[in-house]
Amino acid sequence: MKKINLPAKICPVCNRSFDWRKKWSRDWENVIYCSQRCKRSKDGSVK
To answer: What are phi and psi of 38, to 5 degrees?
Structure first.
């Protein structure tokens, strides 16, 4: 996959865009958060 064509998602906690990563290749459909920090603070308190 070329870097130009990587799919992206928006993190619901910090509202940042994050791109597909090779380590997420098998599980991209289930990836919701951009980082462990955002995953821990699901209430949206991270800014």
So the answer is: -70, -35
Q: Where are the domains of the chain?
A: 3-40
Q: pLDDT tens digits for the chain (47 residues)?
A: 567 788 999 999 999 999 999 999 999 999 999 999 999 987 756 65
Q: Provide DSSP, 1-47.
A: --GGG--EEE-TTT--EEE--GGGTTTGGG---SSHHHHH-TTS---
Cβ 9 vs Cβ 29: under 8 Å? no
Backbone phi, psi, residue 19, to 5°: -95, 160
